[in-house]
Amino acid sequence: MIEIILTEDGSHTIKNHTLNETYHSVHGALNESLHVFIKNGLEFILARSPAEIAVLEVGFGTGLNAWLTAKHMAGTRVNLHYLALEFHPLSESVWSQLNYAATTDDRTLFNELHRISWNEPVPVTPEFLIHKIAKSVYDLELTQSCIDLIYYDAFAPQKQPDMWTRDILAKVACWLKPGGVMVTYCAKGQVKRDLKAAGLTVETLPGPPGKREMIRAIKEPGR
Q: What tens digit of pLDDT does each residue of 71-94 get?
């Protein structure tokens, strides 16, 4: 069973009652995504002035991170290929009620990201192409060193521990290019140790509202 709830910044998230877990922080869904994934992930990569970026999101969920990314890329003249995993896509009766979009254009973009076909790449804007894949990270196979930025947005380790094992984190780390970046809201010590064991340099950064810390991990050249 799932329920739409209002978070402290006025934006919606979804509560999965089976797991007793929310898709985003109850202290502010929109603020969390902007802080963790856009500010400390996408903007960090864009500061390098790339011509193109490959992003992998583990957990498409509400579509909030994809929508914020597409909006942020507008006018940048940087081509972004967005690969989004989601094994349990939300129904339109759920995602259509989410309140992230404040304008007609924003709502049109948000709706399009949800309605486009799964399992094929679809251009959405001049800068943003999305490929939604109805698979879990366990089943996904990618070539090594093909991703610039990973949004790791799975449910918390205590709720979905199989998404945070050393083997899974090592698998995901292999997909990063040298210099590639992984960001996540999670800051557990074991996750940091496992990312370091996978060859990433781990930074502990200030977290979003309501959370003290987050992780940004970088695959250094030569690793």
A: 999 999 999 999 999 999 999 999
